[in-house]
Amino acid sequence: MESPRYNTKYRLGIIVPSLNVTIEPEFNAVAPEDLSIHATRLLLRRGSGKDLVNMAKDTENACKMLDSAEVDAILYACTTGSLIGGKIWEKQLEQRMKESSSVPVITTAAAVLDALTTLKLRKVAVGTPYAKELNDAELRFLEENGFEVTKIEGLGYTKGAPLHAELPETTVKLARAVDSPDAEGIFLSCTDLKTMTVIQRIEKELGKPVVTSNAASLWLSLKAMKRNGRLNGYGTLLAKH
Fold first, then answer.
1. How does strand 148-154 pair with strand 105-107?
2. Are the folds of 10-108+215-234 and 112-213 the same?
C-alpha cells in the first residue's frame, strides 16, 4: 500500500466543478511527492454558460474554506468557468479570489494563456468536450487575448456522464482531428477531459507542443507556490518549463 501524503511541504487547494471527476485523479497521479491536493466543490449541473456563471457565485466562500486548510495556493479549476464572460470576467474572478484568501490564486483560463505564451504558441488548434456555446466563448477569449485559433472542435457534451465514459484515446483522436499544418500547437481544453496520460504521445505523433487545461493548471500552481523542479512524462510544458 502506498503511504498517504501526510507530511507534505506544499498544499494546493483546488475549486472544482461538482460534476468534475477527472482533475483530482490526474493531479494526484502526477503531482510531486511533496505536494498534496485539497479540493472543495461548487455546484455545476451541466456545461452551459448560465450554469457556469451561477457556479461562480460562491467562489469567495470556497476560497475561504481552502484558506482555512492553510493551503499554499488556490486554483479555480475550471476552464470555461474562468473565461465564460471573457477577459474582464477572468480578471474579476481572480480579484474576487484574492480578496477572499491569503495565498496566491490561479484560474485555469489564466494558466492556459500563460502556458501558450511560454511555449511561444500564437496559432493554436483547440479540442474540447464542449457544445457550441462554450466553444464560441473559448474562441472569443483566446482571440481577445491575442491568439489565433486555426480550428476548434468539440465533442458536444453538456453533461458529465457521457464525457466520463470516454477513454483517453478519445482525447488523442480529438487532437488529430483539430490539428493542421498552420497550427503551432494544440490546446486541449477542460479540466474534466482525460489528458495527462496522453500528452506526450500526442506531442510525439503530431510533432508540436500540447497544452491541456490540467497540465497548465498544475504547472502555474507549482510556479505560484515557488515549487521548483520539472515533471517528466507529461509533455513539454511540465518537463521543460
1. unpaired
2. yes
Spatial distance between the Cα atoms of 111 and 91, rounded to a whole number of angstroms: 12
Largest distance between two CA atoms of the chain: 48
Q: Which CATH architecture has domain 112-213?
A: 3-Layer(aba) Sandwich (3.40)
**Closest CA relative to residue 179, chosen from 157, 150, 144, 141:** 150
> Among 90, 92, 70, which Cα is nearest to 82's?
90
SS3 196: coil
**Domain ranges, ordered by start, for the chain:** 10-108+215-234, 112-213
CA 186, distance to chain mean position in Å, is: 14
Work out the number of other CB atoms within 10 angstroms of the CB of residue 227: 17
From first to last of its 241 residues, the chain has per-residue pLDDT tens of 667 777 679 999 999 999 999 999 999 999 999 999 999 999 999 999 999 999 999 999 999 999 999 999 999 999 999 999 999 999 999 999 999 999 999 999 999 999 999 999 999 999 999 999 999 999 999 999 999 999 999 999 999 999 999 999 999 999 999 999 999 999 999 999 999 999 999 999 999 999 999 999 999 999 999 998 889 999 999 998 8
Total-model pTM: 0.97
| Domain 10-108+215-234 bears CATH identifier 3.40.50.450 | no
Closest CA to 140 of 210, 79, 87, 217: 87
